[in-house]
Amino acid sequence: MTLSAAQLRWGRLALVLFGTWAIFYRFWPVSHKHHFIGHPQQAWDDIAAIENGTLGFGKVFAINMASRPDKRDNIALGSSVCDFSVDWIDGVFPEDINPKTYPYNWKKDNQKSEYAARRAHVNGMRRIVEDRIGSAIIMEDDSDWDVNIKVQLQNFALGLREIQGTTDVPNTSPYGDDWDVLWIGHCGIECRTDLPFYEAPNDFTVPQSRHFLPYLRDASRFERPDHARLTCAIQDGVCTNMYAVSYQGAQRILAALSVNPLGLAEDIDIGAQFDTSLGAICGNGYLRCFAPYPALTGTYRSAGASEKSSDINDVKGDAVGFETRGVLYSTMLNVKQILNRQPVRATWEDVERPFMESDMIKIGAGSIYMVQLAADKKPRP
């Protein structure tokens, strides 16, 4: 059977249209597009370990100066009402530092108090190494966390297992076996886009973005629906109000920021404040670093003179009231309610749920995605 001239013309036109559509689809820059991978099959066998007195880690430490017993009181009571225990790492005063201890590459235009703060964190790494602690949280003494922190961390752990590729129950930690740093509390991260990320939807403990801490690093390349929290591998971060480190991670940080074997710091450390240096060595592949977005923890400031808020920077100003930033159902602001067995209140009045409810967060309801950026969609040569 032969085709008519009209049929041939229509056939050629259809091929042209199809080819045009295919080229348009292949090369049109689709920014921030998420490619769904699947709903993970999650292992629950040891997830309850996160409900223990150290949140599923070997220890929980807080850095505190002896001159600030008020901040120590905050952390001691806040951890008590949330049923976990805190040990202490002494803060370091600038005047107590021998100048001989400065790393050779420390930037001399930084404040002495900034090196003192870095030294306190490095002392925490040494404590983990000396005591052979499998993993530990280190927090600063102005930290605050959601009253749901244990449930939040369980969800975080399940996401971490998936993006680490853990298919079985981990051997060393409920958070997985392939990490050095978990940047739990931060004021900005940059997620890696070459690895999958995990999205946990329907988490009503996620504050609106207007109530985030001021974020100094941009994770916005990841689309995030309201009430969703992401877990991703990171290439940078800033602010170390709370993070976890594995034993091997502590060894590697101690090597990079202090011991410096065979010029290691020349390649990976930028001689900066602790959080800035940590972000840099997460980004160059020396450490395997992961984080939630937005952060799980925030910061707390007691009422009184404004200079009470920082032991590093010289803060001046009028007296201030109690304030928490970055946490929707603040532990510090709800101590009275918890002790009196009253409903937990939201930090801000302009929120969807002013009181905490039983369905704020669902454990394990998440999915794995990849991100494809416009810059990745380039024509083939």
From TrEMBL:
Membrane-spanning parts: 12-28
> Which keywords does this Swiss-Prot/TrEMBL entry list?
Membrane, Transmembrane, Transmembrane helix
Q: What is this protein called?
A: LPS glycosyltransferase
Lineage of the source organism?
A: Eukaryota, Fungi, Dikarya, Ascomycota, Pezizomycotina
